[in-house]
Amino acid sequence: MTAVVQQSKPSFGAGTIILAGLSFFGFVLMIIRWATGLGATTALVDSRGWGIWIGFDVLCGIALAAGAFSVAAAVYIFQLKEFYPILRPTVLTGFIGYGLAALSIAIDLGFPHRIWHLLIYWNVHSPLFEVGWCVMTYVTVLGLEISPIVFEKFNLKAPLKLIRAITIPLVILGVILSTMHQSSLGTLFLPMASRVNPLWYSAILPILFFISAVAAGLSMVIIEASLSAAGLNHRLEVRLLGKIAKVIPYVLGLYLGIRAIDMLVAGDLRYMFTGDLFSFLFWAEVILGVILPIILFSMPTTRKNRYRMFWSAVLVVFGLIFNRINISLVGFDGAPYWPTWQELFISIGMVSIGALVFVLASRYLAVFSSHSPANAE
Amino acid sequence: MTINRRDFLKKTGFGLGGLLVQPDVSKLVTSPGSLKGGAGMLFDASKCVGCTECQVACKKRLNTLNPEVDISEYDVNPHDLSAYTWSLIKLYKDETDDSRSSFVKVQCMHCLHPACVSVCPVGALTKSEAGPVVYDDKKCFGCRYCMAACPFDVPKYQWDKVFPLIQKCDFCADRQEAGLQPACSSVCPTGALLYGEREELLLIAKNRIKNDSRYVDHIYGEHEVGGTAQLYISQVPFELLGFQALSAVSLPGLTWPWMAAVPGVVVVVGSLMSGIYWFTKRRNKLQLEKEE
Hints:
By secondary structure, chain A is an all-alpha fold. Chain A has helices at about 15-35, 40, 50-65, 65-75, 85-110, 115-120, 125-145, 150-155, 155-165, 165-185, 205-230, 240-265, 270, 275-300, 300-305, 305-330, 340-365. The N and C termini of chain A lie far apart (about 45 Å). The longest helix of chain B is centred in the C-terminal third of the chain and has 30 residues, at about 260-290.
């Protein structure tokens, strides 16, 4: 850095540079994958058609972005304006998350350049049709919701006014779309009754997917706020995050209750204590990712301590990732599978692109602003 | 919004309650592939001698359809279906008791309620009235949901291609339309593979089972996943032949109640959110007035 640079902002740290490198590498691999085909770049085979791009990037990416609709609803619908300081970073993460999920779907398609077929060839019976449409629409909605940070930067008054006028309908549309596709990602697995391990298959997967996405989405809000406070020198709203943390045990409790009742009704109890790999993974997921966070988040001492809150949220997020991977890969009957390095680095690249865009946006745009929205006073 | 609070809570309560009720799939008939009849094939495992003529005929037709297709795989006798092997004779060998060894033919089952058809987001797979489940390679964008959803693991992918297509037995839809038998059944020398109306084939199968006690008293495909066009009878237990025990529940029937509920969810969630917004706004306003 030369002496002439006169900005108060710190120079790019090593973390940002690593993120940029991984993003670029992932991007190059995506191009190679498109040019050479799935067979040449992935470990996928006939009886294992879906790998980590679906199991992790799409299923987890979308679920973890569920914080956006929850917080937007809290601020605008329930008018809990105190949550406004975390609204923008959350909606921005949602926008990035959904954009990347769409990119992951495109990369996973045999014909990425035919993705627009979804627009003209309809099959309303297909859960994937609904998910595709919801993701497309919701990316647009989130893009509009977050667009003020760009308009503010360039002082564009007219579009800013327009967006503010339609914020409430946009937020309501966002909640509707999220309810639809978060649950439809569960519907996706309903026809595979004979292929998904009974510890994870359920006739009410759509409901379980929706509730777990809300819990994980809220946990992501805590994680992002903590990380960006540490990395970008912002004041951490511990009290505010504590309030979100207070909601999580209820959501997770509801999830645990419904899942337990459903498993009892379906007679899946006998699979829980077989002592095989699946029963072990099941208990790891439920104890570490659901029961433990319920206990931790219920303790006032956790909700007052930023580190405890952060690590409890990490547990919930890992629980969700475990769950989605178990349903789509580990507990999914098919050929043995381990992703190739290309698959892994494209996934890593996706996460890096997301983090990089977030870091850059936080640096140059008013992502963390404390003033209240104009239309919600 | 002109909805009072009591009504509003009542309605939304019902709406959410409705979501929690498990759908009764047995009563559901979904629109894709709800036809009962159509063409079918009956494979009698006890009559198959494993000559693989059907397999060869299938390969030859595949090669005429698409001359670029490499059928050399045929020479090494593949172990499983693939993008280039749509039909295959498998041998299930019982080392201890040879009378329990049996050949079996595998190919697309052409379900009456095909999961693949219902899950394809772009409608590239369709169930025709005549029976075959056929594929439109111009629509397919390669999501591979059909491969994941098929209970028989039938749709295969051209992993060797940069832009791969789904491949599977199409029940020789073109030949059937021209009034011909499917390639495989047309060459079967022992009558192990019969082609005809599914209803008639069911009668034949039932007769054989009734008249010969050596048959397993089960027609595989009569009820499995809501019924399939391809039917099987055998004197060796089906699980030994690699057939999975499947319930009679039609797989599209598992997803359809949820998909059909989507418009309801839109209305319920939409009005719930609008109602809460209206309510909280009013409450805040009243509170402000009181403070003043």
